[in-house]
Structures
1.
Amino acid sequence: MTERIRNIAVGLIVRDGHVLAEEYSATVRYGGFLRAIGGGIDFGERAEEALRREFQEELAVEIQAAELLAVTENLFTLAGRRGHEVVHVFSIRSDELERMPLDERRRIIDGSSTAGWWPLDELGDETLPMYPDGILDLARSLAG
């Protein structure tokens, strides 16, 4: 496998002390975790365009507004494989997602995971980690 740096765009929505995130269940190779919703930026595509496309592909929802919060770098190991990402983090507004009940879980269309609202005060390295690194701090800053 060729090692490469992956450029991704992810979106944050915070509502009533909860953050919208994608849940990955624990396996024999790694523990369960949350991830900000989004995905890879294709060649010739702007980060915001990728973000909008990913939310459409994964949840079939439109994003009404997106504001770039930060660009971060994430070095990690998952299931024994090293990863390196440059992450464009956006604060987003989606009327449909903001109406989604806090206890609802939605299946990700192109995957086996689900998306839902998670209480910010219950997340962290010692409980349920959320990636990419630093994303919880950004979500908490949006919560006020």
2.
Amino acid sequence: MSFIRESFSEFWASNISKIGILFLTVLVIVSIYTVVTLPLDFGVRYWYNPLYWVDYPKTAQPEWINIFLSEKLMSHAELSVSKASGIKTYNNRFIKYYNVSYNHEYNQFPKFITLRISNLLFHNRDSPPIVRFYVTRPDGKTVELYTLAIETPSNNVIPPFKYFSIEPKRILLSGDMYLARSLIGFLYREFNISLGISSILEIGNERIIFGYISGKNTFAPLTGRYVFSTVLVCSDVNDNIGMVNVVLGGYVYGLMGTDVLGRDLSQGLLFGFPVALIIGIGTSLLTTVIGAGLGIISGYIGGRIDDFIQRFADTINNIPLLPLLILLSFIFGGKLWLIILVLVFFNWPSLTIIVRSMVLSAKTSQFIEAAVAIGASRLRVMVKHIFPQVAPFVFAQMIFFTPYAILAEAALSFLGLGDVTMPTWGQILEYGFKNGAVFLGYWWWILPPGLFIVYSAITFVFIALGMEPVVNPRLRRWK
């Protein structure tokens, strides 16, 4: 125990060790948070599912970038309402209003406008409801956005009838022909301007809705309060809409922005933390156990066992790793377990050779000979007497292996050969380069994953540097 205390005291005396432990603590805490908050199948269920991100803004910058801009960029907004704000009756029909307001204070138009409704419930088979969408602008003018007629349910369905419960009904207003025709009438009625559908679509539906006329066929952003109204016309007072969403595509989103598919990069980057730890620690732990174990056996037992282990280690050492890793990834796919196994298989020989040389000098020590003389078994000698002699070096090597494994996975993912069932920092980098993020200036897509790779690698480098005085007594501080 005194040896352990002295070793830890020597390790902790270095400032670089404390920085490494601090960095590692952050890595572990973020990894635990990610595992708790995100599902384990996040990659398959969400990250690689384009439909999940369809209403997210594409290539949006991080929200905090507005701190440094004199003219603020429009934030992505998703408005929702689940309860009717009013109800009227007209000709034996009930009219329910679902209103939600939005204060537009930016000098840009929304990238897109999407309407979604879910859990539409009605009871009368012969009189299905009609859903109409309107928006009232800051200038008091109202635009009809869309009219949704619900189909009559089949006779084998028992009331009440529930629509859009599994998949919400999504209406993309940008480029919608129904809205374009409605805007033709709106412009002529309110401003006495005649435009055709082609001109409306060329200008953009969202620009006309959120703009005022600033010139011939040109619109400038109209700031102020917009009220989006969803009107349910139904025949039963119990008919209702479970949820109405209005999505206004912005230019900034979240903590880390989005990629070209609209994926929230902060979630992908978060998921990269536990993946990096699993790859790094898993690979280094297995490599160290196998390499140190075979090195101790080879050095202490000797003979044919020693010859076999050393010749096998020399053979493995002379096989190029990267081409074989690329080939196996092509054949079997870039599975995480395959990457770990290949890295372990090709990295244990170097540790085995070094540990063997240390054991050859240690086994001639007098305390080893004394243990053998009193009848200690080979296993006991190797575990109780030899392993403690090489343990500091082995632990230091284990820490050094960790960043190597993380960088190897990142490099493989950057080549497009990573595990496609989960997002990693290397894959985020690879997809960014493939879509020209560097040339288009999407810095938020490239810099964070690169910095996180460096951060995780340098964490274990700092810890390994702090272990050097423990491994090498000549570097210890004399007290």
3.
Amino acid sequence: MAKVNLFNQVRDFVEKINEAGGKPLYELTPEEARGVLRGVQEAKTEEPDVERKEAEIEVGGGRMMRLEITKPKGVTGELGVIYYIHGGGWVMGDNITHRRLVAELAADIPAAVVFPIYTPAPEGQFPEVVEDLFKALEYIASHGDKYGLDTSHLAVAGDSVGGNMAAVMTLMAKENGFTPTIDFQLLLYPVTNADFDTETYRQFADGPWLTKQAMEWFWEQYLPDKEKRKSKEASPLMATVDELRDLPPALVITGENDVLRDEGEAYARKLDSAGVKTFSARFNGTIHDFMMLNELSASAPTRAAMSLAKAKLRWFLYGTK
């Protein structure tokens, strides 16, 4: 493993995980891998008071999807919407693993966070997963008032592969003439390409935390066909500058010690070259997933990144700081 630069709290977490041992994710079954992330996220952390409700909708082909809607407790009236797509390598993650992160966004913006619970890979694969997610986004845009949502103030967001699919939502929205306007896209250490030969893939191939082999396994579960990975709906970095033009303003957050750092920052630069108002911030001393991981929720990089993300969401949703 290449030399890494970890802040103390992050280093303690990584050492704890390494000392626990266990097989790497790519040697597990998908269900076993899901259990690993659930176990990691059992760490106790403070969570704001929020209210949660669920809806179930049909997204096409007889497929159903649950939506969890999280709002600040006691807030009345319609709220702006964050359509948040979770990460976890397409295989792992759900409304439980991301519970604290979602609650924090809902309470502190304040906003209603609509969290689609999509079918994980390999049971759910490309392109059905992104098609279903876009159908759910269209549903929220059309029926938001039913749930006390003001969809005239709308952002998309996601972490890791969720950042990949949030970016894809903006591309699909442009292609399909989606209304209302998406005001903002928040992409947390996103997967933007299926290229495993970047400098950071070489530097952090063995971690810490996320490894090259794990990412290769995740892609195999989600989209085994390597040729199809070149489409912009799978790899948004493959979109042309013209295809990126007029997309919503973006904040791309990356972590220093992450195989995905280069592709996330490359996507931010390409958005900027297309004339998209783009903010890009790298947080040193930390790892992939640092904003989602409960054990790192109080770490300095996470607190700083969350403050930045919340500030941009408030501004682009409501025009307030």
4.
Amino acid sequence: MKERYARNLSLPGWTLETQQRLAESGVLVVGAGGLGSAVLFYLAAAGVGRLAIIEDDRVEITNLQRQVLYGTDDLGKAKADVAARRLRALNPQVEVALHRTRLEADNAARLVNGYDLVLDCTDNLETRRLLNQTCLKLSRPWVHGAVSEYYGHVTTLLPSGPCWHCLFGAETTGNPTPPPAGILGPVAGMIGCLQATEALKYLAGIGRLLVGRLLVWDAVPATWDEFTYTKNPDCPACRSGTG
């Protein structure tokens, strides 16, 4: 362990006990596209013991501009299978579980319940609403990320804090599956790396999380902005704790 994770163990406050905590943790990653590729790669490299992938798509040529787990030889293959193979090759110490399905109302609680943390690497409102409801119901923390064109954002949601609906409100009732938009590949990578960083901080118990804070990157002017938000006492999702 010491040799593989030497650069982790050289970090201030990062001990063998910290690394062992990662090895004993389980993270569910919903979506293995542009965001999920970066998230999965760095969590596996860091030594998170159990990773689960929810993904039912196959690799298409338009994915290769930003979804860095896949190559030309993978076209037509199931993303979950390819991602798992890459992660196991990167770090054989990590257990990778595959769920070749979509997150839906009839499987969400079962899938989320087995893990310590959930990462939202999806691209549609319907799945995010379901994640919000499920994580509230099961008291699971999750890290939300989203990208479109030159823009991306990330925030961390804890059971005791404001929820996704508190933040986005009426926006959560829009078109559940918007038409495909352009995405600058590195923007997806940047936001995915931020999500992975938040996940590792949470699991390791270090630093200040993006709870009640939305961090926004706009690549065109090259600016970072931070917006704070609070728990809405009238939020229809979290005021009862059940979504």
